[in-house]
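Action item from last week, closing it out:
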Amino acid sequence: MQTPSDQSDQQERHDYPAHWEADVVLRDGGTARIRPITAEDADRLVSFYEQVSDESKYYRFFAPYPRLSAKDVHRFTHHDQVDRVGLAATVGGEFIATVRYDRIDERGMAASAPADEAEVAFLVQDAHQGRGVASTLLEHIAAVARERGIRRFAAEVLPANTKMIKVFTDAGYQQKRSFEDGVVRLEFGLEPTDRSLAVQRAREQRAEGRSVQRLLTPGSVAVIGVGRTPGGVGRSVLSNLRDAGFAGRLYAVNSAFDEGARIEGVPAHRSVTSVAEPVDLAVVTVPADRVPQVVADCGEHGVQGLVVLSAGYAESGAEGRERQRELVRQARSHGMRIVGPNAFGVINTSPRARLNASLAPQSPARGRIGLFTQSGAIGIALLSGLHRRGAGLSTFIGSGNRADVSGNDVLQYWYEDPDTDVALMYLETIGNPRKFTRLARRAATAKPLVVVQGARHSGIAPTGHAVQATRLPHATVSALLRQAGVIRVDTVTEMVDAGLLLAGQPLPSGPRVGILGNSESLGLLTYDACVADGLRPLPPRDLTTGATPADFRAALAEALSDDGCDAVIVNAIPWVREDKVAADPETLAGELRAAAAGCPAKPVAVVHVELGGLAEALAAAARTRPDAPAAPAAGGTEHPAPAPAADAAPDTEGAEDAADEARPHRIPAYPAAERAVRALAEAVRYAQWRREAAEPGKVHEYDDIDESGTADRIAELLARGEGRRGLTLADADAHELLGRYGVPVREALPAPGPDEAVEAARRLGYPVALKTTAPHLRHRADLGGVRLDLADEEQLRRAYQELIDLFGKPAELRPVVQKMVPRGVDTVVRAVIDPAAGAVLSFGLAGAASELLGDTAHRLIPVTDREAASLVRSIRTAPLLFGWRGSAPVDTPALQELLQRVSRLVDDHPEVVGVSLEPVVVAPRGLSVLGASVRLAPPPARDDLGPRTLPGY
């Protein structure tokens, strides 16, 4: 163990590494900033050390060490940023923890590269122990060490320092432990492992979820910017909080108030700093130019989070964008997270919170739907629409510019939230698509996630959103979201329709749909809609217009009891009894609920036409998804419900839950058959995805893959490139690289003249194909630039002359000769690395028709065997591969293997940023790759593999 003064100082050899700076979320949901320690931090270091207990100092230095000497301070604040590095975690600009490494040789002495081991040591202020600071710092110092060529860490820890031993042992790295001279010595490699990545993501989920929970379950709220007279944003929010019956303490803040005054019965203060009690959440409604002082006051008072409704930020232009960056920077420096700015607010209907810190004048009823929206206008529409249809919410977040808290954070919260069964999200941008698809896939295994993506065709992000651009078309992004289990719909109406069905009914076990009702025409429309949406409708049952509610009940019960039926759609139009008295919709609703209760495992939806009151009567059952299981943890156990805020009101929801258990499922009602069918079809597809996700398949290893040789070859080829621009490989190099992964490409010999074409054919053997490779003719057989089945020299020379006569000189056409392969179906396989979404594998049939129709399927890399099989079957023209109209089925297993091999190549070597195989001729037995191109470039940054960080501002 090296004591502070054991080693000589070194001069700094590197500039300040600003890219090591990061904001992080800690275990309790608060934030901290991690940054390199510099020479200007001497006073901060001394102050930090004075606040550390004697016991913690003893654990750090193995001896009493009450204070740091001037030499110690100099050593701990002067680093070369290569062999000696120190990082600090700060809150409010002050140190709360430090970590450092020193590169050592095999004798444990100070060393420089190529030595690849370093000794690491931590010190965490006692008041901040237990917040996950050390484990977060370990992730960041390990990433720094890997960047500087260090491959192993060593740490010496006293046996009594169990907390620090646990930090190392729980990190998930491969470790060796020894005990000598009363000290535990731990050594571990720094390369990420599956276990270390799983540990990191589990910690990320808990921390980010907890940070949102703190915003939604405050024990006290201060509304800052409350006017003295009714009206205005601040006063409206205060009224909404009061009217919702907020379960905690409430304060009104305005610099013009007299201390001790009351506004609408709420204590009033001139500043949040004058509030005697802790404040958990501040709702900020003051003008943008006054927000910095408000944030500073909140930070000084220890406020945990902010909801900033104030406008005038990135949505207003360049000056506003800089103001927004400074807002996030300032809030995070004090450990606070922000919803907003330009936000609509947050709502939590739980009896533990009863929080309506939003501009919604009416708090929604309690329910089990979570709602997130980036648009205030869409938020108003969705809240109103759900309210009109009798649906309740668990939580609502209107994020506005979402400068900090994003949809990813809310997904982390919903994943473990026992009060949310269905998640609805309106997204105008996805700041981190790679992370979103990862989180969505995990969340969708536990509860449905319905997403509408706005601004998907304009290519223009809302002015308030700073996001990384994706080069992928919207159709590709949509396909990738569906692969992750997201229910992707086009409109907010469709989102509400699907949400109501998913929240109120069980998932269907298949696509077979029973149809019944008192209108034959409506039944036929429903049947047609089912066929159009890929469902398998049973023949409609017409109950005639004279059907009574009892007839509906009997017919529904019979349909639900049919083993050949997975779901039922009931159509109802107005009817009149024989005594000319119109039937009561509430009676019909009661009969339908009673029939549905007899078979609770199958979903039921109702289509009503001009039958006023039926939808409201069906919505009377407030219970939603009683059978929804809690989200499974990695080990298969159920997640515990998050603990309420310490100052929250006592839990009084037990009686309401008991009442809920006695209520039947809510049956959703729709004004049109198409809407009911579309919602049911989405539920069927999601249920199928859930079943498939339970057995996700595997990524094959393939013994003939040369991974290490490919890596060496890629390094050689990249050395020829032009900086970070990379290079497109020559055909020979591309074919060699693909061959190392078991993807042989058929040889094509250049034919600059007819004699060279004849010689090429002699080498390859007849029959041959003659093709032009000019860019405007390449892969366009429909333009006549390909001649097939040339059996001899005479046919080859004639075909060569025809091409010249049609298209021009050989130098322009770039003809090649290729041996004929077995006939089959021409397909295209491509892989690309998108800077935002990650590596994507695409498949489709070759030809202009498929390109014009956009008939291409996509999957995220790495692709499993099940995903490869699904990819082949996902295109609309897939029947051509399986013997359409009497043709011979082609070798789809060989095609699926090819897809997996390309996936492995791109996944194993991120420098392979583009692969195109066109055409791939799939025959009844085997396949042939006739053309290939490969592009290499230095790998793009992977923000999902590094240490946990919040998005930059």
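Closing note: The longest strand covers residues 94-104.
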